[in-house]
Amino acid sequence: MTTREDVPKVTCRCTSESGCTAVWQYYARIMKYISRFTLTLAFAFGLFFTHPLLAQNQILGEVQFEGTTSNERTAGVWIDGQYLGYVRELKGSKKVLLLPGDHQITIRQGGYLDWVTRLTMQPGEKQVLRVTMQKDTRVHFPTITAEVKLAVTPDRAAVFVDGVFVGHVGEFNGAGKALLVAPGKHNFKISLPGYQTFETQISLNPFQKFQLKTDLARGAVTEASLKERE
User: Does residue 161 fall inside a structural domain?
Assistant: First the structure.
């Protein structure tokens, strides 16, 4: 409630006591309306700026991936045609949040059949997908090979050889790790959303050891968009 102590001091020039009282009542009423209007604006301002964040947390669903074998845990993940990373890393700060609706999930690993499923995400829902990979019997590995080590950052980027996904960079770098390919010319593509795609052609001799070294430059997500079956 507004009192005379709450209202700024004013000089009254009324000629009667009743007139002076009326002035004070009118002035107090104005200050009360101003106070209410200010409070309403503050509430509306806070609601406007916090509502999108609250709505986002309530609307987005989360999908988690689980794999038993090493090949399953390092398999690449595509959602609606977009490469996101590999199974083991998609958690914590890299967890996958999806809008409600239908989504297609594709899991790929070199030498294995694609694991494909569809899911319908509800607002705020969490779904866990258990990945099961099966070997592709149509794939035959060469008996004579060349060895390619990848010294590339970020090491979570996807690696394609001659248009086929073979894994992520971290699988082919370090002690005892390398990519074995048949001798000859091969097109290498290394890409990750948020970075510019790196492409090069390499000619390899039998039993040759080769190191491919580069740092992906940051760029628009669309520049590194890896669509289904490039």
Answer: yes
